Amino acid sequence: MKWNSSLAIGIEAIDNQHKQIFEHLLALENSVAKRDPWHIVRFLLSQLADYMKFHLAVEEAMLEIVRYPQHADHCQAHAKIMDQIAELEKQLQKTGSESELVNFFEDWFIRHVLSDDRQYANYVKKEFPALSGQVGQQTGG
Fold it and tell me: Which residue of 30, 55, 123, 135 is 20 to 30 Å from 73, comparing CA positions?
């Protein structure tokens, strides 16, 4: 799966991070498709998980700063996904079903971006247009 503009939420910094997550997902997906040894898949998975942790922390900090009304719910969704990733990683070591992990990441991430992230993006664009690069659009120049 590759990034495409339909996944953009309109906040450049977050969109750039989402693109990076897709790059990590693509590398992991390619590694699984090539049937790379477990240590390579594990390395790519750890890179993805580390970047996800970074991204989620940035997103949560931004939501706290802008006082997003559903901040707590959004953070809970992030905590849940990180728990699920850890559990899938444990299962993966036992079963070797890497493709299941890749599918999980792709499905969750796309649903999260298209639903939850779009909701907060709409709030941010309305309340803090400078964060989404829309200042000129709202002020007429």
Answer: 135
Residue 121 lies in a domain: yes
Residue 117 covered by a domain: yes
Arithmetic mean of pLDDT, 65-79: 92
- Among left, alpha and beta (phi > 0; psi -120 to 50; other), residue 67 is left
State yes or no: pLDDT of 136 exceeds 60: no
- The pTM score is 0.82
Per-residue model confidence as pLDDT tens digits over 19-30? 999 899 889 889
113 within some domain = yes
Q: How many independent structural domains does the chain possess?
A: 1
Q: What is the CATH number of the domain that holds 89?
A: 1.20.120.50
**Parent domain of 31:** 11-139
